UniProtKB/TrEMBL annotation:
CDD domains: ABC_Mj1267_LivG_branched. Gene3D superfamilies: P-loop containing nucleotide triphosphate hydrolases. It comes from Thiothrix caldifontis. This is Urea transport system ATP-binding protein. Residues 23-263 form the ABC transporter domain. The keyword Transport applies. One of its GO terms (cellular component) is plasma membrane.
Amino acid sequence: MSEGAHLRQPETGQPDASHKAILYLEGLNVSFDGFKAINDLTLYIDSGELRCIIGPNGAGKTTMMDIITGKTRPNSGQAWFGQTVDLLKLSEPEIANAGIGRKFQKPTVFESHSVAENLELAMHGNKSVWYSLRARLSGEQQALIDETLQTIGLTENYHQQAGALSHGQKQWLEIGMLLVQKPHLLLVDEPVAGMTHQEMERTAELLTSLAGKHSVVVVEHDMDFVRSIANKVTVLHQGSVLAEGTMDEVQNDQRVIEVYLGE
Ligand SMILES: Nc1ncnc2c1ncn2[C@@H]1O[C@H](COP(=O)(O)OP(=O)(O)OP(=O)(O)O)[C@@H](O)[C@H]1O
C-alpha cells in the first residue's frame, strides 16, 4: 500500500462523543533526552467546541498537537478520540482517517493548480494528481466543493491559480482542503501569522463558523486574535495546563501574568 493510503478518505465513522468530550488527553508525558516537554498533561476538548491553546515559547503546544496526530509518541499517558478510539494505537494516516485534520502554520497548497482543483486533490487524497483531476465528480462531491468554497470565502476564485492567491487566501484554501475530508476535529497551528488585519478578521469568522459542526483546536500567539474567537482558553506552561477559562479569566490569573512577564 502506498504511503498515506488510509489518508483523507472523506467518509469516516463518527467518533463516540456521547460523554460530551471528543478528545481526552490524560496524564501525558513526553521527554526529549531527559527534558520533559510534556509533563502530566491532562486536557479535554468538548465535541463542537472551539478551544484556543496559548502559552509561551517552549510550553509544549506543538508537542501536544504532535501527540494527537501520532507524530510523537508519549512515554506515558492516554489519548482518546471520543470514547472508543485509542490514538496511541493508531498510525498517523489512521488518525487522519479517523477524522482528525491538522493545518500547519505554513500553507502548502498546490500552487500550479486552480483553487477548485486543490479541493479536488484533497478530496481524492492518496490518488495520483492525474487520476484525481480526470475523475468525474459526483453531484455530491461537486456540491461539497461549492459549499466549501463558500465557507472559506473563495467562490469567486474557483478557477484562479492557487499560487496567485494572497497569503490569507492560501491559508483559507488549506483549511478548505481539510474540510473536504470531513474531519471531526481540526487542529490549527498559528493560523494568522503573517496575515493583514482584514485577513485576521475573516479568519476569525471562518474558524468560529466551523465550531459546532466540527471541534476546533487553535494554537495561536496573537492574543487579540485569541480574544476575538475564544470562549475557552487553555494556557500551557512547561508541558502542563497552567490555567483554563475565558480570556478575561486567564489574562487576570496571576500565575499566567508571571509566566508571560518572565518570557
Ligand atoms: N524533537 C525534539 N527534541 C528535543 N527537544 C524538543 C523536540 N521537540 C520539542 N522539543 C523541546 O520541547 C519543548 C516544547 O516544545 P514545543 O515546540 O512543543 O513548544 P511550543 O509551545 O510549541 O513552543 P512555540 O510556541 O515556540 O512553538 C521545547 O523546549 C523544545 O525545545
